[in-house]
Design a protein that fits this description.
- The protein contains eleven helices and seven strands.
- The chain is an alpha/beta fold.
- It has a seven-stranded mixed β-sheet, with helices on both faces.
- Strand 4, helix 7 and strand 5 form a beta-alpha-beta unit.
- The chain binds S-adenosylmethionine.
- S-adenosylmethionine binds next to helix 1 and helix 5.
Length: about 300
C-alpha cells in the first residue's frame, strides 16, 4: 500500500490525491501552527468584544454606487442591508459578493466568514432557495455571525462550520461559489487553503476573492520582519504573481483580476494592525513606511474546470 506523502506545509496527503504546489512563503521563526493560534486568538478576542467601528478596514463604507462597482467595494445600498454588528466586526478588503455574480438558488461558502458581513449580502443574492455557509476557526466570530444573521432575518439561509480552512475536513463538492474576504493572507499555507476551496466547489464552480498581496520589490529584510511577527493582514501577504501561481497550480482556470487598490498610508497602518491595535503585535512604523505603495488589495475570480 502507498504511504501518504508529505507535501508542503507539513500536511499529510492521501495517496493518489492531487499534491499541493510548493508554499511560496518559507515560514520564518514562528511555526505554522503557532501562527494560526495567534491569528485565531486575535480575531476571537476581537469578536468577543463585539468588534469596533474604529481602527480597521477603511475600504468599507465610503463608496458611491459607481465607485463601489469599479473598485469591488460595498455600495451604500448594500451597507443599508447590514446590522451594525456586522459592520463593526467587518475586517475585509473588498466586497467579493459584488463581483461573484451570485444567482438565486446558489450555494455560497465564505472562507473566513468573520462577523458575517458577506454572508448577509450573499444570502440576499441567493434568496430563499439558496444557501450560504460560513466557515471560520474563531468560535466567537461564529457566534457573532449567527447573531448577525438572526438580526438580518436570514438565519434560515445559513449554516456555519467551525473549522480551519486549511483543514482537509472541509466538505467536498457542495458549493457553487466560494467567496473570501481578507483571510487567505492570514494563512501560513495558501496552497492548503486553495486546495480546500477546490475541493468544496462543485465542478464548474467559481471563486471570488478579495485579499491582500504585495506588488513590486519589497526589501527581503522588511518582508522577513513583518512575516516573523505575522503582523495584521500584511505579515502573511505574498507577491501577487506567486499567489496567482498557487491558484492556477491547484487547478483553477480563467483567473481574472477585477480590481486592485494600493493601500494609502492610513489604510496600510490599519491593515497592518488588523483587527485593531489592541489585538495585534506592535511593529516598527519606520519599517511599515518601507512597505508603502507595495501592499495591494486585489480582487479576482477563477473557475474550477468541469473535469
Ligand atoms: C480579516 S478577518 C475577515 C473577516 C470577514 N471575511 C470580513 O470580511 O469581515 C479574517 C477572518 O478569517 C478567520 N481566519 C483566519 N485564518 C483562518 C483559518 N485558517 N481558518 C478559518 N478561519 C480563519 C479569522 O478568524 C477572521 O474571522
Amino acid at each position: 500500500m502507498n504511504k501518504p506523502k508529505k507535501p508542503c506545509c507539513g500536511k499529510w496527503e492521501e495517496p493518489g490525491k492531487r499534491s499541493l504546489p510548493k508554499a511560496a512563503i518559507p515560514i520564518k521563526e514562528l511555526g505554522r501552527e503557532e501562527i494560526k493560534q495567534k491569528v485565531k486568538r486575535r480575531y476571537d478576542e476581537f469578536a468577543k468584544e463585539g468588534g469596533s467601528a474604529e481602527g480597521c478596514c477603511p475600504l468599507v463604507g465610503k463608496s458611491t454606487e459607481s465607485f463601489a462597482l469599479e473598485h469591488g467595494l460595498y455600495s451604500q445600498e448594500e451597507l443599508a442591508l447590514l446590522p451594525k454588528l456586522a459592520i463593526n466586526l467587518s475586517r475585509g478588503c473588498g466586497n467579493p459578493t459584488g463581483f461573484a455574480n451570485l444567482q438565486p438558488g446558489e450555494v455560497v461558502a465564505d472562507f473566513g466568514s468573520g462577523g458575517g458581513i458577506d454572508l448577509v449580502l450573499a444570502a440576499h443574492k441567493v434568496g430563499p432557495t439558496g444557501k450560504v455557509i460560513g466557515i471560520d476557526f474563531a468560535p466567537h466570530m461564529i457566534e457573532r455571525a449567527k447573531q448577525v444573521m438572526e438580526e438580518a432575518g436570514l438565519s434560515d439561509r445559513v449554516e456555519f462550520i467551525l473549522l480551519d480552512i486549511e483543514n482537509p475536513q472541509v466538505p467536498n463538492s457542495i458549493a457553487d461559489v466560494v467567496i473570501s474576504n481578507c483571510v487567505i493572507n492570514l494563512c501560513p499555507c495558501k496552497p492548503c487553503v486553495y486546495k480546500q476551496i477546490f475541493e468544496i466547489l462543485k465542478p464548474d464552480g467559481r471563486l471570488a476573492i478579495s485579499d491582500i498581496v504585495t506588488r513590486g520589490d519589497v526589501d527581503p529584510k522588511v518582508r522577513d520582519y513583518f512575516q516573523s511577527i505575522w503582523t495584521g493582514c500584511t505579515g502573511g501577504a505574498m507577491p501577487e504573481d506567486e499567489y496567482f501561481k498557487i491558484v492556477s497550480e491547484v487547478g483553477f482556470s480563467q483567473l481574472k483580476v477585477v480590481a486592485r487598490h494600493t493601500l494609502g498610508p492610513k489604510e496600510l497602518d490599519e491593515m497592518a494592525s488588523c483587527p485593531g491595535k489592541k489585538f495585534s503585535p506592535v511593529f516598527s512604523e519606520e519599517k511599515l513606511a518601507q512597505m508603502q505603495g507595495k501592499i495591494v488589495s486585489t480582487k479576482f475570480i477563477a473557475v474550477k474546470p468541469k473535469e
